[in-house]
Design goal:
The protein has 131 residues and is mainly alpha-helical. The chain folds into 2 domains: 15-41; 58-129. Helix content is 73%, strand content 0%. It is built from 4 helices and no strands. It has helices at 11-14, 17-41, 58-89, 95-129. α3 (58-89) runs antiparallel to α4 (95-129). It is flat and about 60 Å long. 4% of the residues are buried.
Length: 131
Amino acid sequence: MINLRIPSRSLSDFFSKSSTRSLSAQFFGLLCALLLVPQFTLAQVTMPINPGLSEKTFVGGIMDIITLLASVIAVLAVLMIVISGIMYMTSLGDPARASKAKDTLTYAVIGLIIALLAWVIVKSIAVAFGV
């Protein structure tokens, strides 16, 4: 008779140091390959004539910084909204934890509104001054 039994590996064999090292090396190699691919595809991009500082004014640079900060705050506010939803779902009926989740949601929405208003104000000022 032919033995068709497939040798089984235990979980401890699968997560041994040598296989974990091998998996991390494969992951690192894949990550490096994915990061280097755009470098090859963008090889034919033409460089600008003046690669130094841009021609923006000081006010334009400040507007860019404020827009960047408002964007970061908006992303963090959306993240806090998601976290507060998870907190509310995992409160399991505990009124104190549910109240904390609702407060977190309220503050996150207020932060999102402030970030959006800051972006609108900065863009309005930029349009008004022609920056």
